[in-house]
Amino acid sequence: IQxxxxxxxxxxxxxxxxxxxxxxxxxxxxxxxxDWSKACQAALHMYLLNPPIWYLKSTINNLKIxxxxxxxxxxxxxxxxxxxxxxxxxxxxxxxxxxxxxxxNSNSTLCEER
Length: 114
Fold this sequence. Notes:
mainly alpha
């Protein structure tokens, strides 16, 4: 939430950001908040920045850590009804996670073959 405030204070919107790490932080924040729409916007922006693979590896590893911690914390609070609802934005978010993970895995395979 503070990141949104900082972006607003600096007069920037997500589309104005050119620094991968600012966009990735925005992506991670909204993924943790389950704001799938904003997370997907950030994922697309990350893709368009064409970052090195190790940037994506770092971001995906951060998300794995954050999701594991969040899942453990919320596990007792989630009801079956809440956990079974999947939004369209959540599906798109899942696409981006799979896409970046595949890019990381493909690059690792290529590096190992060399």
